[in-house]
């Protein structure tokens, strides 16, 4: 029963990972995030008056996300505020117009305060009109607060989208708690849930700002800022159990509620659930201590990461000028008529023909709108212009591929340097080896040089890698492709690059070199401290996990790398090798499930014997090169 349950769990995990790698799922998740964000931010309230938080998010984004935020915010203002939400709907209509006219333009990127100022002007103008029409009873201080809040929130969301910074993260959480505080379901307040999570697992400024947001929202007369600050300080007491820290917020609320003489249990379930949900959050500190040379290096890494991120945005923002198709038409007419003996007798000049002629096949000349006496000459020149248009478009597509590849590398390096900066100053204990890999590799080839390339080596922080590159076809060319890609991946992984970054860099390289499908890639990352593993695949044959005599298929047939810089994506399967499971990596020529089934008919054997048996079973199945890699993790003794 437990084995069957484990198989179903692993299948569901693999299905969820495939969804996460599907671009359509990403689009759906982004759509839900923008609509939900606009909906939740519209519920924010100060002094029982609606606030322009959704307008800030709307002015911070551009394109279709702005329309989604406007749709969610419109529904939210009407749902949470009824007739009083009309002013919020007017904010969003004006904000959407500003986002369409100003957002994403070059001058708006050069002036980062333009959109925040636009949000402030919109709030001020519509608020003044509502006050004059007596449609809004907000006092003057609340009017001024709304204008300032619209400017601040727009700048906050725009800066949070451009870079990661602890202060921005704290302010973002404060705004989120302020919005969620008004979203209530029976016996549960979502703002209290978020505040409980921050008090149990967040930084002190985030917890303090969350408490201030709850006090401003007036969900209770109990001082929530004091509750969350005291709850965080209890985490600093050494020796306390982690579950005590997670339940401390609810306990502190009960104590302060008794001291204030107030009986209000509504926030208590949210604080309790938030503390328990904090177990799902990473325990990484929000702000690392920067001291001495380590702090200086950390600052330099963050500066380099910021420069690379800005360069990547500039490359993505490059816009090609439209192709002057009218000039191509005019040039074709000029070439056709320049040497035509009938040019002096023509009553109609073909220079003003429609540009649609460049996008459809030209036959006998019946589709020409002019009464040309030499249609053959004109058709020949138009076909030449069509060919020029195809060349121009192909050249632009090629430049776009180059630009996307360079921007992608800048983004990878920016994220990598930022992660390196975050972990540089941590004083965490180094991971300890708990497992030792036992690896066996067997290969055969009918040619003098095998197109399969298998590498195994130790990485950083108790990581161990196995790379299997299968060059397309057989012979020297396939061997050269497999060796080149394998060695490049090895250098990247030894330098500490995450496998997904390294694989996408190889994909960009293959696409720019015009070597689509030249190689398929298997990368197995083994954690020798935890026994966990991850198998990254790009066009490679399925692998197998052998557990208790049963073989579980890992991965499916996918397109090889190099087809496109932007559309290609690797697949990843995460698994565990802590209980002596065997991981089998196969190249295309090493048979597959049938060979594995025949090899497993005999008694269980160590990796070396299983690899040799698999290779023997697959020798008669084709002329392709065959490589089998079998790995198992053996637990180290306590000594």
Total E-strand runs: 14
Helix proportion range: 40-55%
Based on CA inertia axes, which overall geometry fits? flat
- Give the neighbour order of strands across the main sheet: 5-14-13-10-11
Question: Could you give a short account of the major beta sheet?
Answer: 5 strands, antiparallel
Task: Give the termini separation.
Answer: 36 Å
Helical segment count = 21
- CA gyration radius, whole angstroms: 32 Å
- Average pLDDT over all residues: 79
Question: Which structural class should the secondary elements be placed in?
Answer: alpha+beta
Uncertain segments are 1-6, 283-289
Share of residues in strands: 5-15%
Topology of this structure?
Layout: H1 2-21, H2 23-41, E1 45-46, E2 49-50, H3 53-60, H4 64-81, H5 86-101, H6 106-110, H7 114-132, H8 140-162, H9 166-180, E3 184-185, E4 188-189, H10 190-201, H11 204-217, H12 224-234, H13 242-260, H14 267-277, H15 292-316, H16 325-338, H17 375-424, E5 435-444, E6 452-458, E7 463-471, H18 476-494, H19 499-512, E8 519-527, E9 532-538, E10 543-547, E11 550-554, E12 571-576, E13 582-586, H20 593-599, H21 607-618, E14 626-635
């Amino acid at each position: 029963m437990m084995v069957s349950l484990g198989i179903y769990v692993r299948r569901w995990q693999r299905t969820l990972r495939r969804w996460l790698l599907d671009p359509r799922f990403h689009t759906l998740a982004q759509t839900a995030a923008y609509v939900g964000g606009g909906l939740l931010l519209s519920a924010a309230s100060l002094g029982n008056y609606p606030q322009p938080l959704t307008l800030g998010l709307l002015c911070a984004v551009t394109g279709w996300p702005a329309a989604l935020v406007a749709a969610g915010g419109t529904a939210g203002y009407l749902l949470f505020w009824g007739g009083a939400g009309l002013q919020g709907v007017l904010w969003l209509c004006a904000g959407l117009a500003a986002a369409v006219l100003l957002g994403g333009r070059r001058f708006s990127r050069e002036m980062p305060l333009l959109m925040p100022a636009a949000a402030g002007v919109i709030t001020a103008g519509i608020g003044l009109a509502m006050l004059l029409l007596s449609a809004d009873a907000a006092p003057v201080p609340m009017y001024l607060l709304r204008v300032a809040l619209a400017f601040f929130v727009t700048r906050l969301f725009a800066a949070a989208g451009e870079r990661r910074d602890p202060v921005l993260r704290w302010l973002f959480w404060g705004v989120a708690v302020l919005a969620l505080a008004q979203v209530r379901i029976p016996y549960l307040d979502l703002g209290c849930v978020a505040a409980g999570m921050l008090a149990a697992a967040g930084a002190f400024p985030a917890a303090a700002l969350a408490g201030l947001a709850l006090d401003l929202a007036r969900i209770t007369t109990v001082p929530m800022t004091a509750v969350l600050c005291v709850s965080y300080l209890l985490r600093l007491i050494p020796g306390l159990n982690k579950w005590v820290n997670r339940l401390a917020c609810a306990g502190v609320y009960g104590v302060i509620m008794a001291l204030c003489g107030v009986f209000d249990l509504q926030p208590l379930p949210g604080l309790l659930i938030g503390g328990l949900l904090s177990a799902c959050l990473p325990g990484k500190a929000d702000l690392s201590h920067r001291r001495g040379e380590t702090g200086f290096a950390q600052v330099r890494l963050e500066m380099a990461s910021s420069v690379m991120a800005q360069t990547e945005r500039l490359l993505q923002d490059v816009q090609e000028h439209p192709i002057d198709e009218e000039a191509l038409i005019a040039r074709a007419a000029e070439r056709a008529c320049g040497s035509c003996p009938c040019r002096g007798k023509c009553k109609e000049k073909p220079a003003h023909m429609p540009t649609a002629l460049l996008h459809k096949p030209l036959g006998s000349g019946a589709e020409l709108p002019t009464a040309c006496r030499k249609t053959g000459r004109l058709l020949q020149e138009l076909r030449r212009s069509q060919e020029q248009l195809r060349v121009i478009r192909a050249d632009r597509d090629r430049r776009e591929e180059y630009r996307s590849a360079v921007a992608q590398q800048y983004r990878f390096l920016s994220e990598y340097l930022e992660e390196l900066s975050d972990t540089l100053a941590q004083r965490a204990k180094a991971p300890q080896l708990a497992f030792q890999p036992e690896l066996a590799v067997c290969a055969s080839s009918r040619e003098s040089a095998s197109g399969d390339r298998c590498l195994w080596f130790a990485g950083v922080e108790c990581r161990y890698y196995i790379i299997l590159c299968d060059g397309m076809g057989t012979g020297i060319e396939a061997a050269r492709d497999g060796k080149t890609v394998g060695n490049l991946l090895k250098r990247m992984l030894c330098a500490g690059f995450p496998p997904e970054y390294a694989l996408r860099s190889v994909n960009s390289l293959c696409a720019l070199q015009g070597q689509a499908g030249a190689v398929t890639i298997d990368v197995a990352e083994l954690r020798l401290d935890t026994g966990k593993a991850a198998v990254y695949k790009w066009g490679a044959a399925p692998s197998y996990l052998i557990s208790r005599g049963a073989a579980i298929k890992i991965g499916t047939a996918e397109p090889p790398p190099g087809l496109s810089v932007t559309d290609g994506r690797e697949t990843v399967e995460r698994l565990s090798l802590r209980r002596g499971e065997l991981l089998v990596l196969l190249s295309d020529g090493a048979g597959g499930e049938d060979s594995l089934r025949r090899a497993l008919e005999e008694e269980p054997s160590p990796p070396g014997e299983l690899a040799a048996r698999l290779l023997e079973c697959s020798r008669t199945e084709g002329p392709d090169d065959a490589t089998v890699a079998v790995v198992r993790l053996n637990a180290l003794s306590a000594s």
